[in-house]
Design goal:
By secondary structure, the chain is of the alpha+beta class. The protein folds into 6 domains: 3-47, Helix hairpin bin (Helix Hairpins, Orthogonal Bundle), CATH 1.10.287.610; 70-292, 2-Layer Sandwich (D-amino Acid Aminotransferase, Chain A, domain 1), CATH 3.30.470; 298-401, Nucleic acid-binding proteins (OB fold (Dihydrolipoamide Acetyltransferase, E2P), Beta Barrel), CATH 2.40.50.140; 407-479, 5' to 3' exonuclease, C-terminal subdomain (DNA polymerase, domain 1, Orthogonal Bundle); 482-561, 5' to 3' exonuclease, C-terminal subdomain (DNA polymerase, domain 1, Orthogonal Bundle); 571-648, BRCT domain (Rossmann fold, 3-Layer(aba) Sandwich), CATH 3.40.50.10190. 33% of the residues lie in helices and 22% in strands. The chain contains 22 helices and 27 strands. Strands 15, 16, 17, 18, 19, 20 and 21 form a 7-stranded antiparallel β-sheet that branches. Strand 15 and strand 16 form a beta hairpin. Helix 12 crosses helix 13 and helix 16 (484-490) crosses helix 17. The longest helix is centred in the C-terminal third of the chain and has 22 residues, at 533-554.
């Protein structure tokens, strides 16, 4: 294993260990083993001068923009000429040595580095000009922030989400995303980069932009050089007629088992000078060609169009057709995406349509052979029967339910409201919420606090009894004792997540009266750190339309103002400039996350391992022989208990 591969392996192990330790309280390795791996990673980073964005030695902060800035490309990003005919590929290859590589299906990005440091990321856009997405691309989990050498280069590649991570994201959603390509593209173009941090984005390099600043390198050589610098590069194979048959090499590119979404392969001449000598057309360069797979299509009959209301209120159309075998899978359904997509197909019930499995994976409607154009948009929400409206988003028309109390929306808001980082009502599962909604017990958020009226019926339900019912009601009562930051987060205000809620709470000193004043005095939230105009408008709009929801909930809460945890009060101590490491079990806090939040609320930092920069190691067992304790002792770092920490912050 070379140094770069070892670094990537170490990063993966350490991040998995941190998630298990801090998020789930289930360590998967000892402190000693963690520290040994961490120290080895630091050693490799110093030795190679390469630093990856997802390294536990780094912490890349999110940022929020008010809009994406247009940026002109240094060299036009032309499209590749495309074909589905393997014979045309053979003619292109001729007697030249070519490189065949994956045509990844994501969002094409060009990244600029100055003196070996990550500088800027730009979307392809129209080819001449793209959008600055530096803030989101910096969260690609495999992106090098610092290269091995101090070079000024531009690298083109594809921002993608692997099928494995795509499935991981969809597991948590009732309304899953349709394709990793769309999710990757949407994540990159978010104004709030904190969204991108949760999407497992990856950057796969496929081209070095060669100009007068660097030596001209042939295709495979340039990709090898990028790999040495720290990039993950696209997989590739040499191909040449008469040496390695085009079709034989092509068999190695099987999308069925490939980890990333792809829609074909690219053939590019290996020798740089030869490729450049061919020039370009207005549309595409002549040194490459893309072969897109020819999807086998099958005729079937459209028997229905089903409309499903998602939790955001978006009403999704789904084609229901007579069963058809798509490459070994009997299929009867395919998404129709939106109204514009349906209009282009001119659909109608009974039409003869052709369907296929896009990229051999996703069922799609390819064409409509009869084009009756008789489909009808529902005039009411299929979930709640309320009025609907058509909205135009980036040139496509989508259908939305206008009822703020639509059951699909209600269940989503309720599920978020009771979640861990909101009101944290233990035992209030999504299935339980759906059951209570069906019974008519929950019609708005505040109804959760009236469930005690239904106790006698609740304890007779399947899955409930006296003990479980009373335990749930007790958890609901306990949730009334809540911090302002958790309460704000629970309200599902668009764009206001955990970090933004904490920022607002900190400004209000955790006091709901101060928050009440803000929202009633037209406070400009852009005065807060990392708040832009879009977030300000979102808060203002939410309270204009939902003030009664806030008031009904706020009046029954017992807001917890922890003087000891408030670094803005006279009786509280700031931890600015201090770094803490937490290990072992906790007694005075609910969990390590709560202790971590307390430290961070006072401007302190929490690290995953002990180093020279650590101020204190918090461990209730200060005689422990754990790796963190030993390292703290070796470095002369003081080990304190929770009680000693609480004394410190009085």
């Amino acid at each position: 294993m070379n140094n770069l591969e070892e670094m990537k392996s170490l990063i993966k192990q350490l991040n998995e260990a941190s998630t298990a330790y801090y998020k789930y309280d289930k360590p998967i390795m000892s402190d000693k083993d963690y520290d040994a791996l961490y120290d080895r990673l630091e050693q490799l980073e110093k030795g190679t001068s390469i630093i990856m964005v997802n390294s536990p030695t780094q912490k890349v902060q999110g940022e929020i923009l008010e809009g994406l800035t247009k940026v002109k490309h240094s060299k036009p990003m032309l499209s590749a000429n495309k074909t589905k005919d393997i014979n045309e590929v053979k003619r292109f290859v001729g007697n030249q040595l070519c490189v065949e590589m994956w045509k990844l299906d994501g969002l094409t990005i060009v990244i600029r580095y100055e003196n070996g440091l990550y500088k800027q990321a730009i979307t392809r856009g129209g080819g001449d000009t793209g959008e600055d997405v530096t803030h989101t691309i910096r969260h690609c989990i495999n992106l090098p922030l610092k290269l091995r050498t101090d070079v000024n280069i531009e690298v083109r590649g594809e921002c993608v989400i692997s099928w494995e991570n795509f499935d991981k994201i969809n597991e948590t959603l009732e309304e899953p995303y349709s394709h990793p390509r769309n999710l990757a593209a949407g994540s990159v173009r978010q104004l709030d980069s904190n969204v991108a941090k949760e999407r497992y984005l990856e950057f796969i390099a496929f081209e070095l932009v060669q100009d007068n600043n660097i030596e001209k390198l042939d295709t495979d050589v340039s990709l090898g050089w990028l790999s040495d610098l720290g990039f993950q590069v696209t997989e590739r194979e040499f191909v040449q007629n008469g040496v390695a048959n085009v079709e034989d090499v092509d068999l190695k590119f099987n999308p069925i088992n490939y980890k990333y979404p792809v829609d074909g392969t690219i053939y590019k001449y290996e020798f740089y000078d030869y490729g450049e000598s061919l020039g370009t057309t207005v549309h595409h360069p002549l040194n490459m060609i893309a072969r897109k797979w020819k999807d086998d299509t099958y005729e079937t009959t459209l028997v229905d169009i089903e409309w499903n209301t998602s939790r955001t209120g978006l009403i999704n159309p789904v084609a229901i057709f007579s069963p058809v075998d798509l490459g070994g899978a009997i299929t009867t359904r395919a998404t129709l995406h939106n109204i514009s997509y349906m209009e282009d197909l001119q659909l109608g019930i009974g039409d003869t349509i052709t369907v296929y499995r896009a990229n051999m994976v996703i069922p799609k409607v390819d064409d409509n052979l009869t084009k009756s154009n008789t489909f009808k948009i529902p005039d009411k929400c299929p979930e709640c029967g309320s009025d609907i409206e058509v909205k135009n988003d980036n040139g496509s028309k989508f259908l939305y339910c206008t009822n703020p109390n639509c059951k699909a929306k209600l269940i989503s808001r309720l599920t978020h409201f009771v979640s861990k980082y909101a009101m944290n009502i233990d035992g209030m599962s999504e299935a339980t919420i759906e059951k209570f909604v069906e019974l008519g017990w929950l019609n708005e958020l505040v109804d959760i606090y009236n469930l005690k009226q239904h106790r006698n019926k609740m304890i007779t339900l399947d899955g409930f009894g006296v003990k479980s019912g009373d335990k749930l009601l007790a958890a609901i009562e306990e949730s009334k004792h809540v911090k302002l930051e958790n309460f704000i987060y629970s309200l599902s205000i668009p764009l206001i997540g955990k970090t933004a809620s904490k920022t607002i709470s900190k400004y209000c000193k955790g006091d709901t009266i101060n928050f009440y004043r803000l929202i009633n005095e037209d406070f400009d939230f852009t005065n807060l750190d990392d708040f832009g105009g879009t977030m300000h408008e979102s808060i203002a709009n939410w309270f204009r339309n939902n003030y009664e929801i806030y008031r009904s909930l706020a009046t029954i809460m017992n807001f917890v103002i922890e003087d000891k945890a408030n670094n803005n009060t006279q009786n509280s101590k700031s931890l600015d400039g201090m770094t803490f490491v937490i290990t072992g079990s906790v007694n005075r806090y609910k969990n390590r996350e709560e202790l971590k939040a307390d430290i961070e609320s006072r401007n302190g930092k929490v690290a995953g391992s002990v180093s020279k920069s650590t101020s204190y190691l918090i461990n209730n067992d200060n005689t422990s022989t754990s790796g963190k304790n030993k390292k703290a002792q070796e470095l002369g770092i003081k080990i304190i208990t929770e009680d000693e920490f609480l004394e410190m912050i009085k």
